[in-house]
Specification:
334 residues; alpha+beta; two-stranded antiparallel sheet; disordered N terminus; Asparaginase_II; Asparaginase
Length: 334
């Protein structure tokens, strides 16, 4: 395991403003970070900060983890495949889906090794608590991924007790797949919040991977990448849930594949291979949607047919409230 001190400098020395928080007529706060937008051929169209910085991509790499699983036998209907790449709200269909994946493996929730937690979504959490339940593994936002990992192990004949060990065949496959799709050799690893191994990459590598993933249904329709990408873009609610920018954007833009990650990560790819990825340096969630929409706009992502422009515009700014009413906005700084 590598300490933070061994990482390249990700401080304000190399970061650039990604978002402004405006209250009244003054900029109240600034969110710094690193961002890249790539053309279909992988050429940078927009760079802010240092996109070559090494960082933890967190849950944004769940689609890549799902690709590794499909390559080793994971076979699910599209709705459940989308859940395998999800950071879900813990809504009833999410929990039912995770249980259904486990059932396909002949297992139940006792086989899960992810960290117990309450549902992520506000309404789902309230309903869960009102039903008398507390933090559980099945209600944690990564339960779909963990259920899919267990099904992959059963299918491949791998041990299910140790599926989170870094040297487990499943996790070695995930590491190899992340390095392949991002084009960046994995040189750092740690443990994510759910307990799964987490492999570092760069902002550019993350964008490159999402471009390849989103383009795969057209370029390699029979590939594992295409199965995951099509499932996500077709069933965005299973990837996130209600009131989530990830869901809204994938519904609004045909073929878009998008995934958020904890501590200020977002990445998205378009069907022709254009892609965006960024890291908000302070780990804040509040500027993610405005920054992503503005970066996708720089790529011309909303110029095609079938785009729900009203839904896109609803994410371009986030209101700053005073006495319960909008007195400013969080908006991209570029």
């Amino acid at each position: 395991m590598t300490t933070e001190a061994a990482f390249p400098d990700v401080s304000t020395r190399t970061a650039a403003p990604l978002a402004h928080v405006v209250r009244g007529d003054l900029v109240e706060s600034v969110h710094l970070g690193h961002l890249v937008a790539l053309a279909a051929d992988g050429t940078p169209v927009l760079t802010l900060g240092d996109p070559e910085v090494t960082m933890w991509p967190r849950s944004s790499v769940k689609p890549f983890q799902a690709v590794a699983m499909v390559r080793h036998g994971l076979d699910l209907p599209e709705r459940l495949m989308a859940l395998a790449a999800a950071s879900h709200n813990g809504e009833p269909d999410h929990i039912a889906g995770a249980l259904a994946i486990l059932a396909r493996a002949g297992l139940d929730e006792r086989a899960l090794r992810n960290t117990p937690d309450l549902p992520w979504g506000t309404t789902a959490m309230r309903d869960w608590l009102e039903s008398g339940q507390g933090p559980e593994q099945i209600s944690q936002n990564c339960s779909g991924k963990h259920a899919a990992m267990l099904l992959t192990c059963v299918t491949a004949g791998w041990d299910t007790e140790t599926y989170l060990a870094p040297d487990h065949p499943l996790q070695r496959a995930v590491r190899e797949t992340i390095g392949e799709l991002t084009g960046v050799p994995v040189t750092h690893e740690t443990v994510d919040g759910c307990g799964a191994p987490l492999f570092a990459t760069t902002v550019t590598g993350l964008a490159r991977g999402f471009g390849r993933l989103a383009a795969s249904p057209q370029q390699a329709p029979d590939s594992a990448e295409a199965r995951v990408a099509h499932a996500m873009s077709t069933h965005p609610h299973m990837v996130a849930g209600g009131q989530r920018p990830t869901t809204t954007l994938m519904r609004a833009v045909p073929g878009l594949v998008a995934k958020d990650g904890a501590d200020g990560i977002f990445a998205a790819g378009l069907p022709d291979g254009r892609a965006v990825a960024f890291k908000v340096l302070d780990g804040a969630e509040r500027p993610l949607a405005p920054v992503l929409v503005t970066a996708l706009d720089a790529l011309g992502a909303f110029a095609g047919d079938g785009v729900d422009h009203e839904a896109v515009e609803s994410l371009r700014e986030r209101a700053v409230l005073g006495a319960g009413r909008a007195v400013g906005a969080i908006r991209a700084a570029f």
